[in-house]
Amino acid sequence: MKAIRTMVAAGATLAVLGTAAGTANAATIDTVTCGTVSAQDPTDGWEVKLAGTACFHSDGDWFSLTDENSDGYHVEVHWQTNYDRLGMCKNSSGAGTTVTCNYDMREGASLLFTVYAYDNAYPIMGGAEKRVTI
Fold it and tell me: Which residues make Cβ contacts (< 8 Å) with residue 120, sequence separation at least 6?
């Protein structure tokens, strides 16, 4: 009788663990897609250097935008969905800084984004366009 109770208790424990493990596997996975822009650095002999990096995080629909160089430029990421929504995130906080911009986008939609280096109000260079599913 004691062996049967032990087996029943072990089975109940496994059932609970199985449920917890199943819940953990169903958790949302954050897919991160990044784009970059390089530009000539006027402070370093006009050498082409990495100016900025933007990463879209699918879990929460947000961008991280990093100014990678002390070239005097700021960086922006411009984005557009396939349901006619668009926006821009700007980092003018200086070299080595990262800003985040949080949005609420339609799940399953497509998103296009491009990172740009700007000199005041003028775009200097744009990176490659990135396409992701939200």
Answer: none
Question: Of 94, 92, 83, 97, whose CA–CA distance to 134 is shortest?
Answer: 83
| pTM for the predicted model, two decimal places | 0.76
The DSSP output letter for 72 is S
Q: How far is CA 72 from CA 52, 95, 117, 122, in A?
A: 12, 8, 10, 12
Secondary structure in 3-state letters for 73-110:
CEEEEEEEECCCCEEEEEECCCCCCEEEEECCCCCCCE
Reported as a single tens digit per residue, the pLDDT across 28-70 is 677 899 999 999 988 888 989 999 999 999 888 999 999 999 8
Residues 111-126 pLDDT 10s: 999 999 999 999 999 9
Q: How far apart are CA 65 and CA 82, in angstroms?
A: 22
